[in-house]
From TrEMBL, chain A:
Protein name from the UniProt record: MoaD/ThiS family protein
Pfam families: ThiS
Automatic annotation (TrEMBL), chain B:
TM spans (from-to): none
Cofactor dependence: [4Fe-4S] cluster; tungstopterin
Stated family: Belongs to the AOR/FOR family.
Species of the source: Heliobacterium mobile (Heliobacillus mobilis)
Name of protein: Aldehyde ferredoxin oxidoreductase
Coiled coil spans: none
Domain of life the protein comes from: Bacteria
Lineage start: Bacteria, Bacillati, Bacillota, Clostridia, Eubacteriales
SMART domains the record matches: AFOR_N
One term of GO molecular function: metal ion binding
Pfam families named in the record: AFOR_C, AFOR_N
Key words, A-Z: 4Fe-4S, Iron, Iron-sulfur, Metal-binding, Oxidoreductase
Residue ranges of every copy of the Aldehyde ferredoxin oxidoreductase N-terminal domain listed in the record: 4-207
Length: 98, 598
């Protein structure tokens, strides 16, 4: 269990070697709450190298202003954050309260 | 009288007397009401060193000035007493409709003092107040108690507050329940009511709360409603999924406490998520008094249906016990409501017991029921029942995780602050929230200063959750604002959408005097310091402002918060400084003077 099952990353070495050889990067996209409606829960998606979260949102038709929380590998990031091969992107509409 | 109804109802159980006293409105305003005024009165009337379960302890059930008004979420009441779980001041908050009904009957506060000779309940119908025999109710669970009392009272619109068998058994995890599923849950307030031989308070009122400026109030309420509806969290997130929507977001951040805080990532989070709860178990929403948010859930699993479960309950019975069975969690939640148990302490105590079993401290031969192994769904259901009845090994569990782990000589396995179980956020990956945990006046608690809002949800602004920068001041401001909201009679969840200025406006209209945002924060600071002073007099010291050893020394082993411990040593001195406390965490003479707490 742990890192692998939860999609948090690959070893650094793998990212460096593989990404250098590829034109595209593969990103694991996880959607939550209402973002799942008519979309999906999780999906591996390919994007050109140097793509940002913005390109992910465009590809799955989520308006930027609807995103309340954007995480890359479990860390809060801006929409303009550049993605690396093997990254996990988690997207949430406004949620919360405990 | 302007927002207060002007009467304190004092019930002396030893002498079997009922007395009405006028409310001191000036003092009430200084502490706003609710949590603030109750804490002031408790501090005035009891010695903080007494045994919480002795007749010398008192219970103040208080409303706020905005309780029972037209203000959105203005339905809260609070229970202030000395806690048998923590030895600190306890102030547990509940919603539903009981608080407004009490005010409509003409009372701002009910005080329970002394101890009845035999079980009793209190019946309040406007100015007809009676102490009645409750022999036939003793031993009943919450739903049966409620049904019986509604029938006896003869008015289905009456509101019932009661304890379950856990409160009768004096379990320090016993809650006070109202309208069946609402709980003044934490710090064992139900045991204090049980220690007084009080089973329930039924109330029906025909009056109405009057405020100073109806026109102004109308405008401020409209504005507050608009802000609540337009805010993503209160207008969309909480209404759609309830609090359980947090399961995934907290797990994605790697801070969802799992298997008694051994890790912060739960592989089966999806199975216990708010999304799953809504899709498969939700029957309807179950809102409180005048609430546009309606986060309350009503769910069904097999033959059990009722209110909840909240995020906290799903977490402690779920990932914290290694459970991925939502049905079992819903059933455990339902049993907590029926026996009158605080779900957080109950679930987290089972999680602690599972770790003690795993590590070999609890021997299989001691356990007269299902094995305490991670993920055992039968165990969480059966042990909840037996905590509720204090039966066999369940009686040991019903004392809470600290006393359980301490009895094996290993209190460090209890994930508590001041002996109260921590809630569902691992502070190793949320540094500000950790300093808030360590300094909460009622021990481990998330609703004394919800730093999850800026550190995870990005409200009102996004903070780096790993950074220490500025966190002590954030913790102080959140704690102060929260104290004022709790004192006002409104729900804390409005603070996702409203700020100190909004609460000031609502209080201005209610009282008919100008109240500023600064006044609101100062009142909160005053309440916080008052509670602190009570705790110091009760014997707590700086040494109690800490976190479980695991969170300070064992780095999170995996996930997005991997490698982090909580850096309390760096944060605490700065927190004391921004509070105006000395190096030992004692409010300075200057600070007390500034707040009028001399």
């Amino acid at each position: 269990m742990g890192d692998h099952l939860n999609g948090y990353g690959t070893s650094e070495q793998f990212v460096l070697n593989e990404a250098a050889l590829k034109q595209n990067i593969t990103v694991f996209v996880k959607l939550f709450a209402t973002f799942r409606d008519k979309r999906f829960m999780t999906r591996h998606m390919e994007f050109p190298v140097r793509s940002t979260v913005r390109e992910v949102l465009q590809a799955i038709h989520i308006p930027e202003e609807e995103v309340a929380i954007c995480m890359v590998n479990g860390h809060s990031k801006e929409i303009g954050h550049e993605l690396a091969d093997g990254d996990t992107v988690s997207l949430f509409p406004p949620v919360g309260g405990g | 009288m302007n927002a207060y109804v002007g009467t304190v109802l004092r019930i002396n159980l030893t002498e079997n007397t009922v007395k009405c006293e006028p409310l001191d409105v000036e003092t009430a305003k200084k502490y706003i009401g609710g949590r603030g005024l109750g804490s002031y009165l408790l501090s005035q009337e009891i010695d903080p060193e007494i045994d919480a379960l002795s007749p010398e302890n008192k219970v103040f059930i208080t409303t706020g000035p905005l309780t029972g008004t037209t203000v959105p979420t203005g339905g809260r009441y609070m229970v202030i007493t000395k806690s048998p779980l923590t030895g600190t001041i306890a102030s547990s908050n509940s919603g539903g409709f009981w608080g407004p009904e009490l005010k409509n009957a003409g009372y701002d506060i009910v005080v329970l003092e002394g101890k009845a000779e035999k079980p009793v309940y209190i019946s309040i119908k406007d100015d007809q107040v009676e102490i009645k025999d409750a022999a036939h109710l003793w031993g009943m669970k919450v739903n049966e108690t409620t049904d019986t009392l509604l029938e006896e009272f003869g008015d289905p619109k009456a509101r019932v507050l009661c304890i379950g068998p856990a409160g009768e058994n004096l379990s320090p995890m016993a809650a006070i329940m109202n309208e069946r599923y609402r709980a003044a849950g934490r710090s064992g307030v139900g045991a204090v009511v049980g220690s007084k031989n009080v089973k329930a308070i039924v109330v029906r009122g025909s009056g109405k709360v009057k405020i100073a400026d109806e026109e102004k109030m109308k405008a401020f309420v409209k504005d507050a409603m608009k802000k609540i509806r337009e805010n993503g969290v209160t207008g969309q997130g909480l209404p759609t999924y309830g609090t359980a929507v947090l399961v995934n977001i907290i797990n994605e951040s790697g801070v969802l406490p799992t298997r008694n805080f051994q890790t912060g990532v739960f592989a089966d989070a999806e199975a216990i998520s708010g999304e799953t709860l809504s899709a498969e178990y939700l029957v309807k929403k179950d809102p409180c008094y005048r609430c546009p948010i309606a986060c309350g859930r009503y769910t069904k699993a097999d033959e059990m249906e009722g209110g909840g479960p909240e995020y906290e309950t799903i977490w402690c019975y779920g990932s914290d016990c290694g459970i991925n069975d939502m049905k079992a969690i819903i059933k455990a939640n339902h049993l907590c409501n029926e026996y009158g148990l605080d779900t957080i302490t109950a679930g987290a105590t089972i999680a602690c017991a599972m770790e003690l079993f795993e590590k070999g401290y609890i021997k299989p031969e001691e356990v007269d029921g299902p094995e305490l192994t991670w993920g055992n769904a039968e165990a969480i259901i059966e042990w909840t029942k037996r905590m509720g009845t204090s039966e066999g090994f369940g009686a040991k569990l019903a004392q809470g995780s600290y006393r359980l782990a301490e009895s094996y000589g290993v209190p460090e396995y209890s994930m508590t602050v001041k002996k109260q179980e921590l809630p569902a956020y691992d502070p190793r990956g949320i540094q500000g929230h950790g300093v808030q945990y360590a300094t909460s006046n009622r021990g481990g608690c998330h609703v004394r200063g919800y730093l999850i809002s800026p550190e995870i949800l990005g409200l009102p602004e996004k903070l780096d959750r790993f950074s220490l920068e500025g966190k002590p001041l954030w913790a102080k401001i959140f704690q102060d604002l929260t104290a004022s909201i709790d004192a006002s009679g409104m729900c804390l969840f409005t603070s996702f959408a409203l700020g100190a200025g909004d609460y000031a406006d609502l209080l201005s209209a209610a009282w008919g005097v100008e109240v500023t945002a600064e006044d609101v924060l100062t009142a909160g600071d005053r309440i916080y310091n008052l509670e602190r002073i009570f705790n110091l007099k009760a014997g707590l010291t700086k040494a109690d402002d800490t976190l479980p050893k695991r969170l300070l020394e064992e780095p999170l082993p995996e996930g997005p918060s991997k490698g982090w411990v909580h850096k309390l040593d760096e944060l605490l001195p700065k927190y004391y400084e921004v509070r105006g406390w000395d190096a030992d965490g004692v409010p300075t003479a200057e600070k007390r003077k500034e707040l009028g707490l001399e």
